[in-house]
Design brief:
17 helices; 73% helix
């Protein structure tokens, strides 16, 4: 049976899911011997596979062996791989190399580089990127807008993040989550709470990620009033309590006051996720 490039790509995706490094490396050898290694989409699948398996050196070697590095997808795969492997400096160096070669950027490119800049805390590097996004019309892209808001939030300029949020015509829940978390990170809990209410007014359904960052900020600040409002919001909206949201609430109630935790223990019974860590936290957490 003759295997084509699509068969190899499907198999590599399965290897990526299972972190089957040795099997995937064997497939790489078959790809080279069969002459299929010239296909760009197959090379990109191999790049992704090596990054998922944590093999940065193998991924970079494969990328260096590509004769004509004109495919933006290959560069983007390498960029996102560096971000996934917590290598923001390497990602920014790769981006500079892209610039020197005069390659055109996509929204995926910009999103990855913005994540790298945020991880490095380098706002000076992010400002020119924002300018480029404005020039190219990328700011309406939800992934780019979310990355820009996160960058400004980390740098302590969340109000600049709000301006970006306001200008996006159609907002998804991830964009709302990013801004709410950004205000919480900067200690502006009341603003986060106001956004949560505005989200409800706009009929955007929150998820557990919407609240976890805000709840954690309340716990750190011992902001019992805001924390109680969030707990009431969870009840009013009848939100499904997964383990992450449940643990965040338990931690907040412990730090904000034992009476809140006592009143919430019964809610564990209606959780969709019966996580033993949560039950243990409810039963044995020492509150301050």
């Amino acid at each position: 049976m003759m295997l084509d490039q699509f068969s190899f790509i499907s198999t590599l995706k399965a290897c990526s899911r299972e972190l089957a490094h040795e099997t995937g490396q064997g497939i790489h050898g078959v790809v080279v011997r069969s002459g299929h290694g010239l296909f760009t989409n197959l090379k990109n699948a191999l790049l992704h596979f090596y990054f998922v398996c944590g093999r940065i050196g193998d991924a970079h070697q494969l990328f260096d062996e590509i004769p004509q590095k004109s495919d933006v997808v290959s560069w983007n795969t390498l960029l996102s791989g560096y971000i996934q492997m917590s290598q923001p400096t390497m990602a920014t160096c790769l981006f500079r190399e892209m610039c020197s070669k005069g390659l055109k950027f996509s929204t995926t490119t910009i999103t990855s580089v913005l994540c790298a800049v945020s991880d490095l805390g380098n706002l000076d590097g992010g400002l020119p990127l924002h300018g480029h996004c404005v020039k190219m019309g990328f700011c309406s892209d939800l992934n780019v807008a979310t990355a820009l808001i996160a960058m400004y939030a980390i740098a302590g300029f969340i109000d600049l993040g709000y301006k970006i949020f306001y200008q996006v015509p159609v907002k998804d829940v991830a964009l709302w989550n990013c801004l709410i978390d950004g205000y919480a990170r900067n200690g502006q809990l009341q603003d986060s709470l106001a956004l949560l209410q505005l989200m409800k007014h706009e009929q955007v359904k929150p998820n557990s990620s919407t609240l976890v960052g805000l709840i954690s900020a309340c716990a750190a600040a011992r902001a019992s009033g805001v924390g109680l409002c969030i707990g009431n919001y969870v009840e009013e909206e009848q939100m499904a309590l997964d383990a992450v949201l449940g643990m965040a609430l338990v931690d907040m109630y412990c730090k904000c006051g034992f009476q809140f935790l006592e009143g919430w223990k019964s809610k564990c019974e209606i959780m969709d996720s019966h996580d033993f860590r949560l039950w243990g936290a409810c039963a044995g957490r020492k509150c301050h």
